[in-house]
User: Which sequence fits this backbone?
């Protein structure tokens, strides 16, 4: 009788798990609107963390018979962050605050990896994710065309406290959407949708989308051709390039209406592009009048050069997890940074070089596990998801290494990424992933 009760509890939590997961995605992708209508940021964070706690309780209820991929590295990351906090006297609260979003994303991964999900529940969760992605376009369109606003801190309905996601989210969404065009349905409207995500960046005034978007788009098409090497692949590549050429005038219009990279004296497309590239290069390598770094490239160079020459304690443990919260004046003023700390640089500053390398190895380990898993062969839908996640990894690594720290300080991209990664790699879901039929969404 006792075993039966335990089994019933486990079945009930399995049944509720997709609902909790979908709720987490909804809260993450509408948190910007929640803050904009007056909900206090700490309340929004508590609302988002509630489903994560429920996922963790579900995971504890199910039990884990074997370690999920990446467990040892994520454990090492926690241990090293704790060691850095102890060395600097920062306390466990600072440690938990620093590493929590990395742990939250991994909890989601392990829960999906260990829980048997039905085809229907996966279809429902995937539909929710797709709808939430499209909602960001609608929210940005409303800001631009109805409210007449372009506010950097507003990222669709996704965020209301910073603009880096306005570059990263459109690239991540483009990676998934273009993959569906290539592997699932060769409908050009999917490519138009992929480019429409850049409206999120335009509404936030982000200039990087005009450079990174086309590079990523062409890179996806090229990677697809190299992977498949078929006549059909060349046709879809040609279709993708044609759509790009048709939408190029809109990109140039966006450049001309973006502060800092437009110039009234340049009218020809090539002149506009050249000027925008020159401004972008100067922006990334900029220093202010006091010699402080004001661009991402300049900041990364200074962190790289300075941290190699510091004492061994700083090389090993950085300036502690609390350094990023209490301000550079108290911990790392010698770096003279005004702006431009990327994810890897933040890890080096707060945890030291070993902490950063452990996190980087964790991401590479997860990707290598995906790479070693058999790719879906008969299902275009899951082939698209697999390819999209692979490109998504490139976007996340690009962000961590050269753009921002949002990957380790929020779950806006990592929750969906690790959810899909778990679906593709878990033995629990192979009967669905490898089947000849697809979820009808």
Assistant:
């Amino acid at each position: 009788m006792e075993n039966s009760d335990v089994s019933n509890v486990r079945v009930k939590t399995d049944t509720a798990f997709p609902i909790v997961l979908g709720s987490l995605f909804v809260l993450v992708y509408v948190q910007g609107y929640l803050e904009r209508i007056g909900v206090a940021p700490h309340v929004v964070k508590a609302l988002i963390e509630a489903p994560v706690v429920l996922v963790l309780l579900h995971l504890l209820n199910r039990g884990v018979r074997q370690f999920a991929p990446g467990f040892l590295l994520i454990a090492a990351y926690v241990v090293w962050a704790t060691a850095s906090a102890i060395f600097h006297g920062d306390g466990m609260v600072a440690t938990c605050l620093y590493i929590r979003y990395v742990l939250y994303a991994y909890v989601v991964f392990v829960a999906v990896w260990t829980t048997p999900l039905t085809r229907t529940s996966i279809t429902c969760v995937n539909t929710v994710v797709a709808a939430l992605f499209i909602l960001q376009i609608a929210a940005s369109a409303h800001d631009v065309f109805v409210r007449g606003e372009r506010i950097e801190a507003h990222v669709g309905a996704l965020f209301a406290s910073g603009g880096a996601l306005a570059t990263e989210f459109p690239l991540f969404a483009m990676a998934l959407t273009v993959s569906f065009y290539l592997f699932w349905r060769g409908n050009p409207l999917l490519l138009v949708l992929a480019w429409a995500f850049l409206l999120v960046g335009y509404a936030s005034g982000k200039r990087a989308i005009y450079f990174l978007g086309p590079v990523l788009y062409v890179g996806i098409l090229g990677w697809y051709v190299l992977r498949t090497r078929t006549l059909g692949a060349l046709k879809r590549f040609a279709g993708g390039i044609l759509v790009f050429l048709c939408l190029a005038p809109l990109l140039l219009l966006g450049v001309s209406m973006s502060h800092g990279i437009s110039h009234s004296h340049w009218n020809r497309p090539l002149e506009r592009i050249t000027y925008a590239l020159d401004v972008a290069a100067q922006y990334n390598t900029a220093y202010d009048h006091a010699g402080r770094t004001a661009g991402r490239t300049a900041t990364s160079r200074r962190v790289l050069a300075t941290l190699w020459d510091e004492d061994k304690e700083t090389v090993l443990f950085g300036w502690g997890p609390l350094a990023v919260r209490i301000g550079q004046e108290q911990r790392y003023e010698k770096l003279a940074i005004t702006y431009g700390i990327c994810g890897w640089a933040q890890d080096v500053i707060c945890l030291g070089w070993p902490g950063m390398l452990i996190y980087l190895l964790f991401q590479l380990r997860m990707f290598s596990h995906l790479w070693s898993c058999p790719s879906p062969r008969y299902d275009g839908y899951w082939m698209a998801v697999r390819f999209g996640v692979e490109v998504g990894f490139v976007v996340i690594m690009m962000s961590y290494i050269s753009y921002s720290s949002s990957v380790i300080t929020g779950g806006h991209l990592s929750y969906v990424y690790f959810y899909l990664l778990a679906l593709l790699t878990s033995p629990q879901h192979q009967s669905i992933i490898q089947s000849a039929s697809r979820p009808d969404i």
DSSP finds 21 helices and no strands in the chain. The longest helix spans residues 2-36. Confidence is low (pLDDT under 50) at residues 1-7, 436-441.
